[in-house]
Amino acid sequence: MDLREKVDINNLPKHIAVIMDGNGRWAKQRGGLRIFGHKSAITAVRETVEAAAELGVQYLTLYAFSTENWSRPASEVSALMQLLVTTIRKETATLNKNNIRLQTIGDTDSLPKSCQQELMEAIEMTSGNSRMTLVLALSYSGRWELTQAMKKLASKVERGELQAAEITESMVAANLATAGMPDPELLIRTSGEMRISNFLLWQLAYTELYITELLWPDFRKEHLYEAIISYQRRERRFGKTSEQLIK
Ligand code: IPE
Ligand code: IPE
Ligand code: MG
Asked: Which is nearest to 58 in space by CA: 99, 97, 86?
């Protein structure tokens, strides 16, 4: 049975977001260090990016490093940053070959200079690509993003360019790191944790959640298909009644 054929490509989520979790546990199960789990997760990233682009998903956002992840042991943080640099360097050509544009959301100024440099180059080199946008959430948290948006709007009010009473939901959205992107219709979280962990707090308001026990390094194309098929079986009511939707 080919799962890919069960995906209705006329009803694809435009934007899929993923909390890639469970690398540490995956390594521990194999008697390895946590960084072994992070390194082994690259295959899952590659497969997910490829599968999403092949299907025709427009935006794929991967939660790669949260604001809170800075509190991990310094050795893990620096190994993750190093892995980020080498992976981006290695994968940029493949992104170009697959016509995928790279973007980031998050406080990227707080990343080591080498990461910032590597990211800037990859973003620039892939900026003309149009099949899919791959968004890496790096040093990202929903509360950081909302605070940034509030500061931007408040300074407009301070400068007299905007009245507080005129602030609308779309203005808030336009001041988030995800400005211009559709909200994700589907959020996937691996490793079975039933929480959002400060990801896309505004954007996930009506997102369908799909949580799998699978640990992230084991995630493959077929698991993405499974998640999309599950999403396609759901009834998204947005507060309405089921009867209203059938009309
Ligand atoms: C996700 O895996 C990767 C990052 C948060 C960077 P974890 O490192 O959180 O793995 P677990 O949750 O400890 O298994
Ligand atoms: C969420 O995973 C962040 C990323 C996947 C980058 P964590 O492993 O940091 O989440 P918590 O701390 O268990 O909620
Ligand atoms: Mg975790």
From this structure: 99
Q: How far apart are CA 23 and CA 182, in angstroms?
A: 28
| DSSP designation for 244 | H
Q: What is residue 156's predicted lDDT score, i.e. its pLDDT?
A: 98
Q: What residue numbers does the annotated binding site for Mg(2+) cover? A: 21, 208
Question: What torsion do the CA atoms of 84, 89, 90, 91 make, to the nearest 10 degrees?
Answer: 80
Name which of 51, 121, 113 is nearest 91 in CA terms. Answer: 121
CATH of domain 11-141+185-233: 3.40.1180.10
In order of 10, 106, 149, 152, 174, the CA distances from 178 in angstroms are: 24, 10, 11, 14, 8
In ligand 2, which atom is closest to the CA atom of 195?
Answer: 14
- C-alpha triplet 37, 38, 39: angle, nearest 5°: 90
pLDDT of residue 189: 99
